[in-house]
Amino acid sequence: MGTALSRWTMAYFTAALVFLMAAQTMMAMGYGYPTVAVEAPETLVLVHTVTIGWLSLLMCGALLQFVPVLVAKPLQSEKLVLPALLCLLSGLVCLLAGFLHLAGAIETDLPLLPAAATLLPAGFLLVVIVVARTLWNVRPARLPLPARFVAIGLACLAVTFAIGALFALVLSGLLPLDLRTEGLSIHIAAGVGGWLTFTAIGVSYRLLPMFMLAPDEERAASRAVWRCGILALLCFAAAPLERLAGGFGIFGPAAAVLALAALYFYGLDLVFLYRNRKRRKLELNMKAAIGAFVAFFACGLLLPVAALTGTLEMYSGAVFYLAAFGWLTGLGLSQLYKIVPFLTWLECFGAVMGRKPTPRVQDLVAERRARLWFALYFTGVAIGTGALACAVPGLFRLASAMTLVAIGAIIVELVVSRRLLNLPERDSLPEGASRPRLFLPSAR
Amino acid sequence: MTTGNETLADAVERALTMVIDPELGESVIDLGLIYEITVEDGVAYVEMTTTTRGCPATAYLKEAVQSAAWSVPGIHYAEVKLTYEPSWSPGMMKDAARSRLHLA
Questions:
Q1: What is the ipTM of this complex?
Q2: Tell me, what's the pLDDT at A130?
Q3: What is the chain B residue with the closest CA to A281?
Q4: Nearest C-alpha of chain B: how many angstroms from A120?
Q5: pLDDT tens figures, A76-90
Q6: Are B58 and A1 within 8 A, CB to CB?
Q7: Which uninterrupted H or E stretch holds A131?
Q8: For chain A, which residues make up each domain, given as ranges?
Q9: Is the model's pLDDT at A39 over the cut of 90?
Q10: CB of A354 within 8 Å of any CB in chain B?
């Protein structure tokens, strides 16, 4: 159906993993929050290394490969994918260097933040064009539900980088505005809630049935997630405007209630998919994903409890950490553990399929070993969340060291799978099979 | 279709057991991905599907089925048609493959 391998997805994944390791190293060394304040430039370095460097690059790479699967149409404007990556990488380097300059760590007269405010939106815009054009290609048919989640995710990404660019200009002194209160909440809600979470939910609706052989028809609960989720995002966006206009303050609570409703329906869907799967024996990626889903629902429980008890400010760091590392990173790492070997298999053996005997995708991985690393990772995240909630920075650094080791080991497992090192016949591949490069696309 | 052609269709089916779905590790025949095989005048016509619509392996699978069918002595050409009517479901798998995959 015209879909194939996305040439640069592995490069996006590799860059994302490098930034994830960098962020984990910073946390283990006590750089940024909780050692310094949430709004300190050091924390901005850490947060954007995680949200742009790791999570957004991961999501972009995954969408470039899986949006064609969602809509059964080939990727459009593929030539923009590499320029997008280069813009994102150079923009992120400028942004992080700009924050380091604000922190007094580097001395420079270069306009780093204005450069970031140009390069990052340019990179994201190119990704949006590629993905949106691919979705648009479905016309006149209606977009399948998972693809509609992605479309909303893209719109939220646009809002996030537009406000982010304004912030960069404000921080560099070029724009005399104070966006900190109202703009910041939209920036975070659109970025973490809309772009990262909404898109992840959409993609999960396709990946879960695919990997577990579960029913993949559109369900009423999924449509309820979609509707409640959109309304929640709209209310989140309206809440700061309402505050500025001196309204009654109903949009904030309404957004929270709607987000909880969406979470509840998503929970129903997940239980349905896991219970009704045909594949009784779960592979590691689907077992590890359960840890991510548990973290997601824990965030959903913690947020209203903190809001109702007036302790939101105290616990927001812990909840943000749990959302970023338990939910989004947990889901990302667990699915990378399946996707990377799958893409590797296709690159290596796709051309000889049907002509020569080939191994299975599962032969490229060693789940028994990797199971330990995922267990270590989620244990570290649980301890880290507790340490932030109880304000014990030393324990948080220890937990971050645990997750750093676990992620390092999972990356080694991914490299082992890409290098085919788990295959007994790795040194004598069938004629016509091509050994994949580590992260660059195979020569055409 | 003649008796000779029926034998050729059987031979094509045997050849397709070489084509393994990489994700599930079972042959396209055992998975029930091959809906129809007919042979007329030495040309094999295969109608097939994939477990997931739009799967990145689709083009590779289709090509692999064509190449395996074409490799059968007596087959001069193989034509493969991809269809999602009806869409594949695990119920289409052969019992042996279902039990190997621990399917419910």
A1: 0.85
A2: 98
A3: B102
A4: 29
A5: 999 999 999 999 999
A6: yes
A7: helix A112-136
A8: 1-141, 146-280, 319-444
A9: no
A10: yes
